[in-house]
Design brief:
Layout lengths: L2 H25 L8 E3 L18 E3 L4 E2 L2 E2 L12 E3 L13 E2 L2 E2 L3 E4 L7 E6 L7 E10 L1 E9 L2 E12 L8 E5 L16 E9 L4 E9 L6 E17 L7 E3 H8 L7 H21 L5 H5 L6 H5 L1
Parallel strand pairs: 14-17
Antiparallel strand pairs: 1-2, 3-4, 5-16, 6-7, 8-11, 9-10, 10-16, 11-15, 12-14, 12-16, 13-15
C-alpha cells in the first residue's frame, strides 16, 4: 500500500471518528441558560444628592417548562410580603448585639484582601437598629454575610439599604444570596435609605444559604459605600401576584452547575464505533491481526537450540 493511500485512509477514519463523537454529545440532555428578564417598572425618584437606583436587569426564575427556565413579568419593586408565617430568621438582624467592631453572627468578606482595598464598619444606635457599612476604596466585591438554614417554602429577604458614591458601571449596593445572580435590585450613585428585597423559593430538601449586604458582585467589582440596616428574612405563604424579583433556588443551583453532556448509552456506542474504526484502519494499513496479538507464536525448543 502506498503512502498516499495510507494517508487517505487515516483522514477518512479521523473524520468518521469526529462525526461519531459529535453525534454522541449532541444526543445528550442539556440545561438551558438562565432566562434574563428586563424589568421595566418605575423606580423611586432621584435624590438631590445624585442618581438613585437604576432600572435594573433582574434574573427571574419561576419554574421549568421541559428543560427550559420560564420567566414571568414582575414589578421592579417587591411588594410587601403577605401571609407572614414567622419571625425574622436572621440572627441579630437589627444589629444591636455585638462587641468591639463586630456585630454578633455577622462576618466581613471580600474578594480582594489587599490592605487599603476595603474597610468594614458596624455602627450602633441608641434609638433603633444598627448599621453595617462596606467601603470599597478600590474595585472589589465585598460584604457582611451570615449563614442561614432554610426549610422548604417561600421567603422574603429584605433590608434598608443606602448607597454612596457608587459608580453605575458595575454591580452596586444590594441584599444578596451568594449564589448565582440572586439579589435585590441594586442601588448606584448616592441615594436615600430604601427598603430593597426579593422572594426566594427553597425546594423540598431545604437549603443552606449565605445572606449578604453586598457592594459589587461576581465579575463586577465596584467602589463606593453600601449601608445596610434592619435586615430581615421572613417566611411567607407565597409572593403577592406579580411581585418580584423572585428566584427558585433549586433551579438557580441547577443552572449554574456543570450541565450533563451525553448519556451512558450514546457514549458506549461512540466508544465501540471508534474502536472498530481504529481496528479497521490498523488492519488496512497492514498491521497485525487480533489473532496475532492474542496468540503470539512461541518457538519450540528444537528451533531455539538451532
Amino acid at each position: 500500500m502506498t503512502l498516499r493511500n495510507r494517508n487517505s485512509i487515516l483522514r477518512t477514519v479521523a473524520r468518521a471518528t469526529a462525526g461519531v463523537m459529535a453525534l454522541a454529545v449532541s444526543a445528550g440532555p442539556t440545561w438551558a441558560a438562565p432566562t434574563v428578564l428586563r424589568t421595566g417598572g418605575s423606580m423611586p425618584a432621584q435624590s438631590s444628592q445624585g442618581p438613585s437606583a437604576r432600572s435594573s436587569t433582574a434574573t427571574v426564575f419561576s419554574g421549568i417548562v421541559g428543560r427550559t427556565a420560564r420567566s414571568t413579568s414582575v414589578r421592579s419593586e417587591p411588594a410587601e410580603p403577605l401571609g407572614v408565617m414567622g419571625k425574622n430568621l436572621l440572627l441579630n438582624g437589627d444589629l444591636r448585639a455585638g462587641s468591639g467592631d463586630s456585630p454578633d453572627h455577622w462576618r466581613s468578606e471580600a474578594w480582594e484582601q489587599k490592605p487599603g482595598m476595603t474597610s468594614f464598619q458596624w455602627l450602633r444606635s441608641a434609638t433603633g437598629p444598627g448599621e453595617l457599612r462596606v467601603v470599597n476604596r478600590k474595585p472589589n466585591d465585598a460584604r457582611w454575610a451570615q449563614n442561614l438554614t432554610l426549610d422548604p417554602g417561600w421567603y422574603y429577604l429584605s433590608a434598608r439599604i443606602r448607597a454612596e458614591n457608587v459608580p453605575s458601571s458595575a454591580q452596586g449596593a444590594s441584599l444578596a444570596i451568594l449564589e448565582g445572580a440572586i439579589s435585590s435590585l441594586d442601588l448606584r450613585g448616592t441615594t436615600e435609605w430604601e427598603r430593597r428585597g426579593f422572594y426566594l423559593r427553597v425546594g423540598p430538601r431545604g437549603a443552606d444559604v449565605e445572606v449578604a449586604c453586598r457592594l459589587g458582585g461576581f465579575g463586577s467589582l465596584n467602589t463606593g459605600t453600601v449601608m445596610c440596616s434592619d435586615l430581615r428574612v421572613v417566611r411567607v405563604a407565597a409572593p403577592p401576584f406579580g411581585a418580584g424579583p423572585r428566584f427558585d433556588l433549586d433551579l438557580v443551583r441547577r443552572q449554574y452547575s456543570t450541565p450533563p453532556v451525553g448519556n451512558v448509552w450514546t457514549l458506549v456506542a461512540a466508544f465501540a464505533i471508534t474502536l472498530g474504526l481504529a481496528l479497521l484502519g490498523w488492519t488496512m494499513l497492514g498491521g497485525s491481526t487480533l489473532a496475532d496479538v492474542a496468540a503470539p507464536t512461541i518457538p519450540d525448543s528444537k528451533s531455539a537450540r538451532r
